[in-house]
């Protein structure tokens, strides 16, 4: 504690964190939020009831943290992954047998992804049953729906990447549905697969969607989602 | 009342002489959203909320780490086009959809239904009925009963026609729950809770119930040729 206090008195610390320690007044506590880029998405004061676990079950928060874990583990996995056949599959084997903690890394990514689908869905249900979609929150509800769909698509595009039997046939089942879209079904499927069958180009396309496009969309939408919560007057 | 004011309507083209006012009185009061609750107790975000977020994050990471230590992500053999597994299954969250695909023609199951679900979700906040959310039996119970029952009945027949028992039966169950406050006039906690639910809530409950059921069926009860098997 003493070291921390001394550290907080150094010029360097004060150049990074504007807030003076120790915190003693509510003004200081407000400034913690105010002066921080990441924290200032919060208001300085919140309703006591709205931050209780029983109010939201923290499901939105949990979805966000799962997403965060997914980004971190995902970036680490990218270091070991090549979107090519059969490299992709061998990379999975390497993660299992060669890379230190490779299995752990992959497990973390996999299970967070599954849990995120569940938590986002439950979050939607909580918002629904609470009636928190009512005006003025109606547009944030729609953003939420887009987030839900993006979550599903992220999970689904990631499913192909190990390129094992499980991925291959699961994606076959899914992309076969696409061809039943009226008028342009076959073309959309071709666009998605980069050919008539799942192959090298499908892997690259899904890889780009999974590692670049969809996460970007997701980050922007989540930022917007949070901003809207503030603008709509906090939690219902 | 003798001191009732007498109003007269003057008509003039000179708006300065005779100002005109237009008042529009809506037939029903518009649906208002809940106003701010200024009397509620406020606390400082730091540390009250921040500490909760930090603990929540830690718990998420700990739980994930534990799961990841004990359960390995599946990895089968290298993809092989010559070797089609029977059945080939989508990831679990799409198994409901795959189950629908087994029941209905592909355009209906794969395109129409998902599209309708998406549209239904999006329009929820834009209907007054979903904003008021009064209990299903609150006004005009008789009329509600007739319309509700006949729509469910038609839907039920349609499902039977497609042999979609996995949808028809849960629909019937939800229907029985939904109409029970109409028949059972006795007051108890359970019936009161049911009577409180609005149409929107019934539909969502039904949707979630059927989806979960279809996913469970798809995951555990479907074997080769998508035939029914016991787990
Ligand atoms: C990646 C997905 C999502 C993330 C990270 C996320 C995050 C959050 C967070 C952190 C909150 C604050 C309250 C809480 O923790 O529960 C929130 C509130 C909210 N979310 Fe989400 N959300 C996501 C998806 C959704 C979905 C799918 C919907 C609905 C379709 C939705 C609609 C809303 C609404 C309307 C609120 C305001 C609730 C209120 O005012 O009480 N969100 N979201």
Description:
- The complex is a heterodimer of chains A (236) and B (231).
- Chain A is mostly helical and 236 residues long.
- Chain A is 70% helix and 1% strand.
- Chain A has a single domain, classed as Cytochrome Bc1 Complex, Chain C.
- Chain A is globular and about 65 Å long.
- The longest helix of chain A is centred in the C-terminal third of the chain and has 32 residues.
- Chain B is mainly alpha-helical and 231 residues long.
- Chain B folds into two domains: 29 residues; 133 residues, no CATH class.
- Chain B contains eight helices and one strand.
- In chain B, helix 6 runs antiparallel to helix 8.
- The longest helix of chain B is centred in the N-terminal third of the chain and has 26 residues.
- Chain B starts with 41 loop residues before the first strand and ends in an 11-residue tail after the last helix.
- The mean pLDDT of chain B is 89.
- The interface between A and B is large, with 81 and 67 residues.
- Bound molecules: protoporphyrin IX containing FE.
- The site of protoporphyrin IX containing FE has 27 residues of chain A, from helix 5, helix 7, helix 8 and helix 11.
């Amino acid at each position: 504690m003493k070291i921390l206090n001394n550290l907080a008195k150094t010029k360097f610390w004060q150049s990074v964190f504007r807030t003076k320690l120790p915190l003693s007044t509510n003004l200081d506590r407000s400034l913690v939020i105010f002066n921080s880029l990441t924290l200032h998405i919060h208001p300085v004061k919140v309703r006591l009831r709205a931050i209780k676990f029983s109010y939201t079950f923290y499901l939105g928060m949990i979805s966000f943290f799962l997403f965060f874990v997914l980004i971190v583990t995902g970036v680490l996995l990218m270091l070991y992954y090549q979107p090519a056949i059969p490299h992709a599959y061998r990379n999975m084997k390497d993660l299992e047998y060669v890379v230190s903690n490779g299995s752990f890394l992959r497990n973390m990514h996999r299970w967070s992804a599954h849990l995120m689908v569940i938590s986002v869905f439950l979050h939607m249900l909580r918002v629904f049953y609470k009636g928190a979609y009512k005006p003025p929150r109606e547009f944030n509800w729609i953003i939420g729906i887009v987030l839900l769909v993006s979550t599903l698509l992220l999970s689904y595009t990631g499913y192909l990447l190990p390129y094992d039997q499980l991925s291959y046939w699961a994606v076959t089942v899914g992309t076969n549905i696409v061809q039943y879209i009226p008028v342009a079904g076959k073309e959309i499927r071709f666009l998605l697969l980069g050919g008539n069958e799942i192959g090298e180009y499908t892997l690259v396309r899904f890889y780009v969607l999974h590692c670049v496009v969809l996460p970007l969309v997701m980050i922007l939408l989540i930022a917007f989602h949070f901003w809207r919560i503030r603008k709509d007057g906090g939690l219902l | 009342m003798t001191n009732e004011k007498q109003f007269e309507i003057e008509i003039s083209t000179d708006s300065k002489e005779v100002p005109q006012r237009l008042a529009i009185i809506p037939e029903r009061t518009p649906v208002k959203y809940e106003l701010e609750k200024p009397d509620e107790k406020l606390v400082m975000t730091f540390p009250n909320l921040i500490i909760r977020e930090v603990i929540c994050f830690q718990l998420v990471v700990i739980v994930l780490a534990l799961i990841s230590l004990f359960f390995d992500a599946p990895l089968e053999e290298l993809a092989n086009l010559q070797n089609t597994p029977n059945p080939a299954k989508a990831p679990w969250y799409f198994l409901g959809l795959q189950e629908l695909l087994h029941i209905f023609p592909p355009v209906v199951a794969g395109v129409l239904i998902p599209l309708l679900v998406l549209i239904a979700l999006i329009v929820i906040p834009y209907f007054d009925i979903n904003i008021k959310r009064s209990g299903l039996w609150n006004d005009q119970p008789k009329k509600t009963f007739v319309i509700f029952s006949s729509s469910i009945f038609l839907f039920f027949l349609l499902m039977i026609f497609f042999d979609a028992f996995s949808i028809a039966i849960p629909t019937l169950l939800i229907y029985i729950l939904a109409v029970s406050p109409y028949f059972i006039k006795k007051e108890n906690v359970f019936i009161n809770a049911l009577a409180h639910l609005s149409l929107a809530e019934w539909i969502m409950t039904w949707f979630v119930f059927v989806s979960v059921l279809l996913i469970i069926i798809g995951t555990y009860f479907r074997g080769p040729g998508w035939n029914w098997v016991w787990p």
